[in-house]
Prior knowledge:
Shape: globular
Number of helices: 1
Oligomer: single chain
Distance between the termini: 66 Å
Order of helices and strands: EEEEEEHEEEE
Amino acid sequence: EYDNTPNITNFIVETTNLGSSDEVLFSIRFEDGDGDLGLGTDSIYFRAPYQKFIETPTDTSLNPCHYNFQAKLFLETGLNSFTFFDPEEELNDVGALSGRFGFLFDEDEKGPIDGLLTYELQLFHSFIDLQPNTRAFFSVVIVDRACNVSNEIFSDTIVLNENNFTLPSLP
Length: 171
């Protein structure tokens, strides 16, 4: 029996340099006690409590229930020194590294589930001024339909915008 708050483990990130972008594939093991992982595409999943922004007279911030896959990117800024890349500050886009995944279990059925969640993200090099062979890591949480936020997990260090080209040797 699992807790109704999602639990995630075994975080693996794979990247493929596509020239002007990196395809980033996240793989995460998950457990959830009531199986309410995933959001549909129906309009109901864009209204409260899943609307994109919390809008009150004093607050217009990103709703933590809108994206059920939430990633943070940390870029190397010095030898083994990493800094959080803030998409809101850098790109004026609070959800640039987050997204939504579909139902992992039938919406109407309840019960414990576990498995492997894969999620793909396209990371454009010019979008974040990503230099060749930049070392980075990600952190991730997932959110269920009851707005329970999982534990946060961190990837190993990876290389983004990897330059695999070798110069020919001179004769």
